[in-house]
Amino acid sequence: MPSGLAEESSSARPQSLMFSFLGVYVLGAGVAVSSGSVIDVFGRVGVSEEAVRSTLARMVKRGLLARHRDGRRVYVGLTDRAEDVLEDGQARIWKTGAVNRDWDGTWTVVSFSLPDTRRRERHELRSRLVWEGFGPLHSGQWIAAGARPVDAVVAELGLAEHVTVLSSRAAAPTDDRDLVDRAFDTDAIAARYRAFVDRWGAAAPLPGLPDDLARQLVLHTDWLQLVRQDPHLPAQLLPDDWPAIRADEIFRELAAAYDASSALIADAVLDVIPVA
């Protein structure tokens, strides 16, 4: 690996980088991309050919990618399932964002009680609630700011008889800020955003990467990991200097700055075929 590349590549797993790559360069394009050109792109951020091939194979097995052939070359394209996952990621990046200024004062409350015989489902429910922006107020009671639809999650896990979902507001003596402090680790959330600002806020971030295609890929991967972990707490319940505000500005500025140059490089590097 070239000097400096290991330090400046994303610490994310290859699959996280792959989701970012597919979201930026494949989603909505109606194409499949050759595995060889994916290997080329990922080599720019220090991911080995073996790791790329293994990641692609796992995603095909999971029904996220479909193989296509054109002569002797193998191409991979998105399945409907992958498009759903990627569109959710794009919505979190560009629509939801990192700063919640539209809170209506309500909380979604999820209460559940599952016996030890359903420990796996309990663990899965908790994991899915974290994904949807919930934090644990008590062991069997989780909250999230605003309206958060969880009916699909509950139905998918077959837990409707064990889960109660309510929409509510805090009432004296309970304060909304107390709820945030009790259910969410805001220090850890802030630390992640400060790390992003430190990494990307320089005048010329990640100079060790070879080009803007590589920087765009790592930027989107770092940011998507952040917003997927962010419970999207109301801005009025957080400090005025909440680091997500600056981090969001940096991400949008850099994504726009890299857009044209990275697209030109991608057009030259990626070998694609049209797919229905």
From TrEMBL:
Residues 101-180 form the Transcriptional repressor PaaX-like central Cas2-like domain. Keywords: Membrane, Transmembrane, Transmembrane helix. The keyword Membrane applies. GO terms for biological process: DNA-templated transcription. Pfam families: PaaX (PF07848), PaaX_C (PF08223), PaaX_M (PF20803). Residues 13-82 form the Transcriptional repressor PaaX-like N-terminal domain. The keyword Membrane applies. Residues 184-263 form the Transcriptional repressor PaaX-like C-terminal domain. The chain crosses the membrane at residues 20-43. This is Phenylacetic acid degradation operon negative regulatory protein.
